[in-house]
Write a structure and sequence with these properties.
Radius of gyration: 16 Å
Helix content: over 70%
Strand order of the largest sheet: 1-2
Distance between the termini: 51 Å
Oligomer: single chain
Number of helices: 3
Shape: flat
Number of strands: 2
Largest sheet: 2 strands, antiparallel
Strand content: under 5%
Order of helices and strands: HHEEH
Length: about 90
């Protein structure tokens, strides 16, 4: 089961990177998604809420939520820059 999950994660990540590289609109979508996710993770950290991981015995502690909020905010900044601020390159003629 672990091998299947790892394979799915790798394939899903590769597809996300492919679409993010080729589509500016996808990068804009990712910016919004990472912004919301960072906010929710930060709220869970401030509220001190532990979140059980569905289908397992693992529990995500508030400290993990804090680290995830920081990472998601950095991903938001990166995708915001490449999706909204950086102008797309035009091919030379």
């Amino acid at each position: 089961m672990a091998a299947i999950l790892i394979t799915v994660i790798v394939v899903w990540g590769a597809l996300t990177i492919y679409f993010a590289y080729h589509s500016r609109e996808f990068r804009k979508f990712l910016a919004g998604a990472f912004f919301v996710s960072a906010g929710i993770q930060f709220y869970l950290y401030l509220a001190g809420v532990s979140v059980p991981l569905l289908g397992t015995t693992f529990v995500l502690t508030p400290e993990i939520s804090r680290v995830r909020s920081i990472l998601h905010f950095m991903f938001f900044l990166i995708s915001f820059y490449f999706g909204f601020i950086l102008k797309p390159r035009t091919p030379d003629k």
